[in-house]
Amino acid sequence: MEVFKKTLRGNDIVRVLAIRSFSFMMISEFFSQLAFNMQHFVLIFVIYELTLSNTAVSGVILSFTIPAILFSLIGGVYVDRWNKKRVLFMTNLLRGVFLIPFFLADLHVGLIYAFTFLIAVATQFFIPAEGAIIPNLVSRSLLFPANAVFSFGIYITTLLGYILSGPVILLLGKTNTFIFLSALFFISAFLILPMRIHRNRKITFFRSNKVPSFASETREVLLFIRKTRKVMYALMMLTIAQAVIFMFAVLAPGYATTILKIQLESLSWILIAPAAVGMGIGAFILGSIGKRFNRRWLSSLGFMIAGVSFIFFPFVKNAVSDGFINSILGFFPFEITMLHIVVVMASVMGFAISLVFVPSNTTIQLETNESMRGRIYGFLNALIGAVSFLPVILAGGLADLLGVATVIIGFGIIMLILGFIFWAFD
Fold first, then answer.
1. What's the CA angle centered on 310, arms 424 and 255, to 5 degrees?
2. In the chain, at which end, N or C, are there fewer CB atoms within 10 A of the end residue's CB?
3. Angle of CA points 173, 178, 184, to nearest 5°
């Protein structure tokens, strides 16, 4: 027993969770991410239910991504100058306020897009602050497990958010669901207050009274990225991986209804929740043993696994109907159905995405200092918005034109190729 306790105390994940401020941040993130992920799914569900259009669902995704293009670099510049704890508090508070208009019944689709846009603007300040604050809470040696715990928490709340979205809507109704989500943001904001930030020098609301030059700030960031190849690779991988997640969100309703032939309310249980479980498992494993491996290779492997998963998604129905799966897995005491295979594949895809997120975020935090970290994350968010813009539009439009299966296979092939490229070129 004593050996077990000693081993447990020496585990990096346990050491990270023992840090009080980091634990408060994770509890706050639990409520914040739960609200954020439920909000995503609820809005996608509401829009698809109103319009029955993949393109209209793309509109919701774009309401989140366009502000990333317009405001995320600005957000990163100011986050580097502002107290990051205060930024986290205010942005959670604002997101709760911006959900209040959704309390109204039968809100027009245009207004749904508009207020979703405002929530996304607040999020452009929240994202660089949450990524940049982690090195102020834990030591450098614990950054890898801290990012793993952080990612694990996000994935678990993603799981809960998507699992609970359908049942909460059915139980509370649309209006009360948005009241519930707003309350979660408010709770998250006030849980930020007990955090203590450790830094080399005190940061006031601004470091100087001078208004920053965004042109010079951008040039400085671009110059740093060009000189620091590890950060450049990490940014590229995170950007593409996030764009794929947005694309998957656009195609998921159509995939569920046209290929799987399941009710839209079942989407969270069959597809989204298993992916979140896979992400969580991957983050937990990486937190324990991940720092032994080359971070870029881990991310490249994640791309390849995710690409293969995407390619096989549309063929699940044919494999099961032809008896191919059951002929191979005949030792199972029950018949393997299409939904069983989809759940497993979604979990594998989630695991693959964790191989990209955890190592790449750790690389960014290790290779940047506090004075630049917010701008790097702001630049990352701008890249995600810019790169996601075209795939999100194309995913919805091409799915309506060519079919969901064709588009999913195409994106899978692209991911597989990119994985080999990242693996081969240093």
1. 160
2. N
3. 125
Query: What is the DSSP secondary-structure string of 336-400?
Result: PPHHHHHHHHHHHHHHHHHHHHHHHHHHHHHHS-HHHHHHHHHHHHHHHHHHHHHHHHHHHHHHH
Locate 28 and state its tokens.
């706050």
Q: Which DSSP category does 212 fall into?
A: P
CB 232 within 8 A of CB 225: yes
- All domains of the chain in start order, with CATH: 15-194+214-424 (1.20.1250.20)
pTM summary value: 0.67
The rounded distance, in Å, linking the Cα atoms of 129 and 360 is: 17
The residues near 141 (Cβ < 8 Å, ≥ 6 apart) are none
Residue 229 has, within 13 A of its CA and on its CB side, a CA count of 4
The pLDDT profile of the chain, 426 residues, written as one tens digit per residue, is: 444 444 445 567 778 888 888 889 989 989 998 898 788 778 877 777 777 676 777 777 778 777 877 777 777 777 877 888 889 999 999 999 999 988 887 777 788 888 889 998 898 888 888 877 888 888 877 787 888 788 777 767 766 776 787 788 888 887 888 999 999 999 999 999 988 876 544 444 344 445 556 677 777 878 888 888 888 888 888 888 877 777 777 777 777 777 777 666 566 667 777 877 887 788 778 766 766 777 778 888 888 998 888 888 777 766 555 555 555 555 555 566 667 777 888 888 888 888 888 888 888 888 887 777 778 877 787 777 677 666 666 776 777 777 777 888 888 888 888 888 888 765
* Residue among 91, 184, 82 at smallest CA distance from 132: 82
